Amino acid sequence: MGYVPDCDGDRGNVVVYDEQTHRAMIIGAQEVFSVCVIAELAHLQWSGKIDVDKNGNPLTKCAVVVNDPTSLMVNEICSCFGVEIHSSEVGEANVVGLAKKLRDQVFHFIFLFHFIS
User: Fold this and answer.
1) Assessment of whether the complete model's pTM goes beyond 0.85
2) Under CATH, which number does the domain 2-112 receive?
């Protein structure tokens, strides 16, 4: 497994070696993005920053903000963690604007995910 950045380093690909085909395979951007969401939410829950009841339901009002082209996998992930998902139009300003609006509505944690295809 490895990470291959592009020339200016602002993006990159996670690459794995497939032992059956003896080829390197690039993991799709949406899959990498989904793993990042899982890792972030799991860490926040594990570290106690997101309080949960005995059934694992969040007691902390949380939301994930994404833009429209984000995979529906993220919706499923948020559902598993009991975290709300809110979608904005494409554009970093739209994602940040929606996150600010949600913070003003007393969301304790807002996670910004801006996916560029």
Assistant:
1) no
2) 3.40.120
